[in-house]
Write a structure and sequence with these properties.
The protein is an alpha/beta fold. The chain folds into 2 domains: about 10-35 and about 130-275, 3-Layer(aba) Sandwich (Rossmann fold), CATH 3.40.50; about 40-120, no CATH class. The protein is about 45% helix and about 10% strand. It has 10 helices and 7 strands. The protein has helices at about 40-50, 60-70, 80-90, 100-120, 135-145, 160-165, 190-200, 215-225, 245-255, 265-275; strands at about 10, 20-25, 150-155, 175-180, 210, 225-230, 255-260. A 7-stranded mixed β-sheet has the order 1-7-6-5-2-3-4, sandwiched between helices. Strand 5, helix 8 (about 215-225) and strand 6 form a beta-alpha-beta unit. Helix 3 runs antiparallel to helix 4. The two termini are about 15 Å apart. The relative contact order is 0.20. Bound molecules: magnesium ion. Magnesium ion binds near residues 26, 29, 75 and 214.
């Protein structure tokens, strides 16, 4: 049985008869574009911190190293990226600041960059769907229509995730809850939310659907036997193109399927729930 090709969808392993009952969704880069460009704030800030230290790398080698550090930790709480930065400072012979201090500085720079987006949404000047990946809202609605319980999980500080989900008018879809980074960061992880989803709902790992653009959520979902959709979103350019670099990393993390966004929702739903779903 061959099904027609589905533009933009790359299937590495089909879900083969799974019955999804719960879904874990990442927020930034998967649904929301409010923080689009955060990497272009974080990476230069880290370059600046490491410049002048004894790393023996060219500018572009240092950039690649940092980009890899940032990427493999994407999806975890921001503080972990800052802990890695502090480790690099130490490795290169410097004396690091507290990771929390780095995180505050990063957040200050990021908020300066995205304040106008949050204001535009808050004032109603910007339609919420223009700050979301193509097809994200219909995708959330389709999952709810099919009876899935939805959980939103993010590495961004929880009060901001809750606020930005409200600004995008999508908070109501997440009947399983909205989870984000805590000051006491050891008390939260996506892996812990996954475990709680399985036990609270008395479901098995294969019934779990994960959708995200970060390394971490893909790993966490696959670890329990769930099905992971990697969203290789090109947040800056959009338009249904997959970001090749992100795609490769998501496949490395174990993604079962790759999509650039949810524009081809019909095709995605057919893969996940079968034809005519
Ligand atoms: Mg993300």
């Amino acid at each position: 049985m061959s099904s027609p090709p589905k533009p933009g969808i790359e299937i590495l392993r089909p879900p083969a008869g799974r019955q999804f009952t719960c879904a874990l969704l990442d927020f930034d880069g998967t649904i929301s574009l409010i923080r689009q460009g955060w990497q272009d704030v974080m990476i230069p800030m880290m370059m600046k911190v490491l410049s002048g230290l004894d790393h023996g790398l060219s500018e572009s080698q240092l950039h690649d190293l940092i980009r890899e550090d940032v990427t493999v930790l994407t999806g975890r709480q921001t503080i972990y990226q800052m802990i890695r930065l502090a480790e690099r400072v130490r490795q290169f012979g410097g004396t690091p600041a507290e990771p929390l201090e780095y995180k505050r500085e990063y957040h200050r720079r990021l908020m300066a960059r995205i304040a106008h987006r949050r204001q535009g949404l808050a004032r109603g000047e910007c339609p919420p769907d223009t700050m979301m990946l193509a097809g994200a809202r219909p995708m959330l609605e389709a999952l709810r229509t099919r009876g899935l319980k939805l959980y939103l999980t993010s590495g961004t500080d929880e009060p901001y995730v809750v606020e930005e989900a409200r600004l995008l008018q999508i908070a109501q879809y997440f009947d399983g809850g909205i989870y984000g980074a805590r000051d006491d960061y050891k008390t939260y992880s996506k892996a812990a939310v996954v475990r709680r989803m399985l036990s609270d709902n008395r479901i098995a790992g294969p019934d779990l659907l994960g959708i995200g653009d970060g390394f971490v959520e893909i790993v966490n979902v696959r670890e329990v036997g769930g099905y992971a959709v990697g969203v290789a979103s090109d947040e800056a350019r959009g338009g249904g193109r997959a970001d090749a670099w992100k795609r490769d990393r998501l496949i490395q993390a174990g993604a079962d399927m790759i999509v650039p966004d949810f524009a081809n929702l019909e095709g995605i739903l057919e893969v996940l729930f079968g034809p005519g779903s």
